[in-house]
Amino acid sequence: MTVFPDQGLERSQQMFVDLNQHAVRPARSLRLYYDGRDPETQLARAVVDSVPLLRDMTDFTRSNLTSSSRKLFAFSNLHSAIALFANEAGIAAVPENAAPHSEFWATVAHNMPDWRLASAGQVASSELRRDKVHAHGVALEAIAMAGARLMVERPESWLQEISGLATIDWSRQNTAMWEGRALIAGRIHRSRISVQMTADVIFRSLRQMGADGAF
Fold it and tell me: What is the pTM of this model?
């Protein structure tokens, strides 16, 4: 057993990351959350901490949530989505730029009724993971990609158009929208191509709602 002097929580967390790089690796969420050197991780932590729903519903220790978990998101999935949004929107993924990221994810959370129901304890997170596409990493990344595109192409109206997320049918039974994109043979599928295709259909849906005057 190796003993190290206590130099504070932040130093202890970083030592945890360093010591486990070549050991049996802990969950990616936990490794990321403790990694204080990575600016993308610092940004993700700042964004999650600034959005109450995300802070309440994120598991920072597990990457694969159990059926009994009341948490809706794994930190590793949010980390990937926040980094993707930064890349697609052309905003440097550093904690100093947290404000536009926080605004985007707070707007997304506000327009996801199921997420708010889960946060209020009115629906089980496990039910959403079972029944809805939006409770999975592929949807988080696709929302990030579609939202970044809206911000870049529609800087004056993206806030209004992103509200269309609330009217999308996120059910896995909506195969016309999700099969071959976020779903393959009815199962959640997460790959670079599936994220891109899911982002495309979300973006088209939001733009169509805007064109139809649905907001």
Answer: 0.83
